[in-house]
């Protein structure tokens, strides 16, 4: 079983093993925090962005199973045994979780071992010499976890000892440099691959993590569902008071996406000018008309003497509103999450 | 042979693929599945998954801001 993220390293690891004549299938886990896909799909309309894991599977010629682990993953995010990284990224727990899920799949479907694209020294939290044994132990994969890109610097695993895999054909990559991977890709005539800027998980993102912490603090508990974590990815988030938050779409794609939540949240539709949809959370805290004055700043009528809205409750009751937009300096920076 | 529907509206990549994958697992070769979704990315992702699995996308397109794919379940592809 090959863990396929859609990036170059897991693609190379799978290719190195496949080139030894070994049958591989891919696993890709969807946690809800994956950067690709959602954000591309929400913003900028019909950009036709591909799913990189599927694309990699097609290039490799392997089956790919995309697994929804959203519910199970919550415990990893909320109670990470090894703590968080720089933001809310529980990278070591995450790696153990994913390899553990791959181990379950491997055993259920009678595969022999797991491969990942990990490289020793590449990530400060989860890909270090000291943490490799932690993942092997906590996932239960033990010596059935093979890391082809750095295997030669690691103790031989079962597939190597049993002769299923030729250790001499595995690699000895280490450190943060990407040059060995790029060179190997060239050798294998892999000319196109995904290089996600800033990682592939929203939990490594400082702004996203700040919004997640804000949500937990406001609720007084660390919990979430899929809609919560999706909404944190969309729009500008402003919190004018402790219990009141506004989510303001940044483009037409986000407005269309947020429209899917109009039956769950009170929302504001700008009618006199072109402008974004705004969702209100905790709207009893302040006057809706004041929220409309804030939202007007983000539409074409920001400098108009008056802007009109429809204020619409979740049950569809509409109330027309006409307000004077706030001036830019009337929106404190502290409101922006 | 039977025809089935899958409502994957308001789901974003890769959830439409995951739901399709789950639904097809319960169908027989020759069965057909009509998938309805709102994420335009599904128009590239679901066909990619079908190519990997050996299923045929008989028709796909957009109607009224929504997208549809008509899939015929095929024999599992052997790599």
Strand order, biggest sheet of chain B? Answer: 1-2-4-3
- Low-pLDDT residue intervals, each spanning 5 or more residues of chain B: none
Distance between the termini of chain B: 26 Å
Based on secondary structure, the structural category of chain B is alpha+beta
Protein model, in words:
The complex is a heterodimer of chains A (337) and B (79). By secondary structure, chain A is an alpha/beta fold. Chain A has 12 helices and 11 strands. Chain A has 2 domains: 2-202, HUPs (Rossmann fold); 234-335, no CATH class. In chain A, β4 (114-115), α6 and β5 (145-146) form a beta-alpha-beta unit. In chain A, α5 (91-108) crosses α6 (132-139). The radius of gyration of chain A is 24 Å and the shape is elongated. The mean pLDDT of chain A is 92. Chain B has a 4-stranded mixed β-sheet, covered by helices on one side. Chain B is α+β, with helices and mostly antiparallel strands and 79 residues long. The longest helix of chain B has 12 residues, at 42-53. In chain B, β3 and β4 (66-72) form a beta hairpin. Chains A and B meet through α2, α3 and β3 of A and α1 and α2 of B.
């Amino acid at each position: 079983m090959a863990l396929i993220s859609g990036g170059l390293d897991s693609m190379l690891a799978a290719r190195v093993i496949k080139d030894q004549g070994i049958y591989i299938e891919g696993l890709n886990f969807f946690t809800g925090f994956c950067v690709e896909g959602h954000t591309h799909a929400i913003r900028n309309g019909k950009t036709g962005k591909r799913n990189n894991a599927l694309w990699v599977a097609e290039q490799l010629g392997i089956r790919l199973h995309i697994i929804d682990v959203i519910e199970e993953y919550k415990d990893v995010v909320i109670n990470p045994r090894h703590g968080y990284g720089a933001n809310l990224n529980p990278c070591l727990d995450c790696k153990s979780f994913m390899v553990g899920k791959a181990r379950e799949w491997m055993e259920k479907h009678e595969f022999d071992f797991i491969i990942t694209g990990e490289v020793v020294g590449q990530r400060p939290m989860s890909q270090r010499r000291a943490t490799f044994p932690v993942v092997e132990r906590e996932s239960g994969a033990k010596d059935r976890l093979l890391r082809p890109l750095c295997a030669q610097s690691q103790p031989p695993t079962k597939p190597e000892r049993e002769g299923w895999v030729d250790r001499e054909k595995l690699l000895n990559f280490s450190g943060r440099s990407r040059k060995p991977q790029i060179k190997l890709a060239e050798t294998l005539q892999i000319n196109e691959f995904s290089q996600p800027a800033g990682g592939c998980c929203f939990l490594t993102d400082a702004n996203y993590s700040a919004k997640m912490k804000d949500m937990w603090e406001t609720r007084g508990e660390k919990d979430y569902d899929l809609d919560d974590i999706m909404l944190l990815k969309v729009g500008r988030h402003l919190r004018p008071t402790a219990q009141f938050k506004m989510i303001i779409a940044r483009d037409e794609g986000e407005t269309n996406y947020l429209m899917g939540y109009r039956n769950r949240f009170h929302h504001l539709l700008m009618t006199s000018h072109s402008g974004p949809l705004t969702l209100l959370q905790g709207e009893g805290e302040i006057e809706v008309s004041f929220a409309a004055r804030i939202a007007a700043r983000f539409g074409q009528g920001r400098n108009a003497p008056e802007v009109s809205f429809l204020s619409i409750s979740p049950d569809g009751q509409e109330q027309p509103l006409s307000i004077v937009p706030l001036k830019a300096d009337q929106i404190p920076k502290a409101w922006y999450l | 042979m039977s025809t089935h529907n899958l409502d994957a509206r308001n789901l974003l990549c890769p959830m439409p693929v995951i739901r399709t994958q789950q639904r097809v697992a319960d169908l027989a070769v020759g069965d057909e599945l009509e998938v309805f979704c709102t994420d335009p990315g599904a128009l590239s992702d679901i066909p990619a998954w079908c190519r990997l699995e050996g299923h045929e996308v008989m028709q796909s397109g957009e109607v009224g801001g929504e997208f549809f794919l008509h899939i015929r379940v095929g024999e599992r592809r052997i790599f």
